[in-house]
């Protein structure tokens, strides 16, 4: 593809005016951009840097034709950034759409900050008073514990501090610390503060311009910016008269005016030069069929944007998708709650057991789950692609679809996660991929969505809910564990997930045809049975051929297989769930351990004459037949004693628990228990027989012929 960008520059004031034109802004923000996050202090520092002559930095813009913009959700810049609630503020309205737009892909924070500082008497931030006190460094908050009060701050020049700083800098303007001379103040007498009554002792966090001590001291910075103009030929003396007129309007005394005119005139020429400074930017060209095809162009735009916006880290598809959903969300369907609130609430309620304990899901994972459900139920089983992120005709319906079905979407995800936790299945231990949960959640949603459109009696709905829970218990273990054993998520998991989305989408016609709870449950059971049945061949192959390790350090890989095997027989589970302790240990851990320790096997390594041709003793030593999963405070593998001798000293068996009964339940023969005295051939045979028994039982689980007995 040919180069799709040009290197350009434009005066700063022109760029800002393009963004601020209320009759038709031509510089806008694509909604896949993150929100505006800068603070008032950061705005002040940016203005200070520009006055000092420090660089503004380059921008990345994207030229878009008017007829294409409607397919690319975008927003105008804010006039007021409101951080007192869920709303982000007041933005400009487009009234006269131009033929072309420029979208800001990199530089939104800087442009928005300068607009808030320079473009109007009422532009600025609305914050809770407590937040203002933190922002401006108020040492002691005098407003009490209330959070009801807020103030709207506009950037002002504190004339007194400016003159003091100018004198301290020995009349060198670029040495003035403007971050001290620039202050945020309430400049709207009617709407600049919350109407809630304030106590007499209430201390305002930022200055209120409409009191005597502030009215002649605080000058709106936007008025200084406007007064500076763009005439490069004006000298400092040309500003003297306009400055006096402005100071007179502010009620500044004649003596202070005399002191202020010269410094302010120098400030005016500096601001004028800042406005005329040419800002460099890269401009991505509008789509041209003569340069590339549409798909290649869209892929390039998304990748350019995401990489440059995150210092080299590509934004995830979920981050961009979430930005779109926030824009098109229909809060009427979610009790007035925004997409941000709905997703955050779902995230807070979702927990999955992981190796480190119960963990809250990342917001990306929540968005991925919701997006997958939408793909299955509303997008014919097609997952979102990078190109889709620039297509308004796809993104806008997605937000509407999800908000209208949010009750069922939320329930499906939470119920599946709860079911997985109830089965004590941990991510990273028993299953490897979050994608496996997405498939279950989407299948669950299909049932809930169809049942929501049916008129059901209370008893029928109760029967449906309880039956769904039973089906989840019946199939969750096999689906999560076997999909991992079958290698479904090892490679090209995106393609695998897309395949499952397409399969589930085909079920929609069967769900739609269902007219009763029995019909719905029959369709759902058939889907779950198909999912696990399709895993059988690959999962069986793993257990039969690929479940083996070469060294003692790798036996941890047997964890899931042994964890499951211990739970497939009542006596075995009763024996293996007993915590075992030696010494004064108060804690124990669930570990894979050798039955006949590695040190005991060393004595057998010399007896190679009894081994079958091609037998690798290391593989036998570290096979699953020589391993067990115990909740214990000791390590058998580090011992040089037979298991029977070692266990006889363990508290639980010294206290009366029959050791032989325990050993039989775990398929441990006398040969295993007395590994030091058993001959090599017998020990190898016993280990192989136990391994075959374990594998056979695991295969029965894969085929659905046996289930866990621990729940």
What does this structure look like?
The chain has 711 residues and is of the alpha+beta class. The protein folds into 3 domains: 5-124, no CATH class; 317-538, no CATH class; 547-702, no CATH class. It contains 32 helices and 16 strands. The strands form 4 sheets. The chain has a 6-stranded mixed beta sheet. A hairpin with a 2-residue loop joins strand 13 (351-354) and strand 14 (357-360). Helix 9 (221-228) packs across helix 11 (254-276), helix 18 packs antiparallel against helix 19 and helix 25 (570-576) packs across helix 30 (659-665). The model has no long low-confidence stretch (mean pLDDT 87).
Quote the average pLDDT. 87
Q: How many whole angstroms does the radius of gyration measure?
A: 35 Å
What is the 3D form?
elongated
Query: What is the first-to-last residue Cα distance?
Result: 59 Å
Computed structural class: alpha+beta
Q: Number of DSSP strands?
A: 16
Number of domains: 3
Strand share of the residues? 5-15%
Strand order in space, largest sheet: 1-12-3-7-2-4
Question: Sheet with the most strands?
Answer: 6 strands, mixed
Helical element count? 32
Sequence stretches where pLDDT stays below 50 over 5 or more residues: none
Q: Residue share in helices?
A: 40-55%
Characteristic terms for this protein:
711 residues; alpha+beta
SSE layout:
Blueprint: E1 5-11, H1 12-20, E2 27-30, H2 40-51, E3 59-65, H3 66-69, E4 74-75, E5 78-82, E6 89-91, E7 100-106, H4 108-118, E8 124-128, H5 129-135, E9 150-158, H6 159-168, H7 178-181, E10 182-186, H8 212-215, E11 218-220, H9 221-228, H10 240-249, H11 254-276, E12 278-284, H12 294-309, H13 317-328, H14 339-349, E13 351-354, E14 357-360, H15 363-378, H16 392-404, H17 406-422, H18 435-452, H19 458-485, H20 493-506, H21 508-513, H22 517-533, H23 536-546, H24 559-565, H25 570-576, E15 589-594, H26 598-601, H27 617-621, E16 627-632, H28 643-647, H29 651-654, H30 659-665, H31 670-673, H32 680-702
Parallel strand pairs: 2-7, 3-12, 5-8
Antiparallel strand pairs: 1-12, 2-4, 3-7, 5-6, 8-9, 9-10, 9-11, 13-14, 15-16
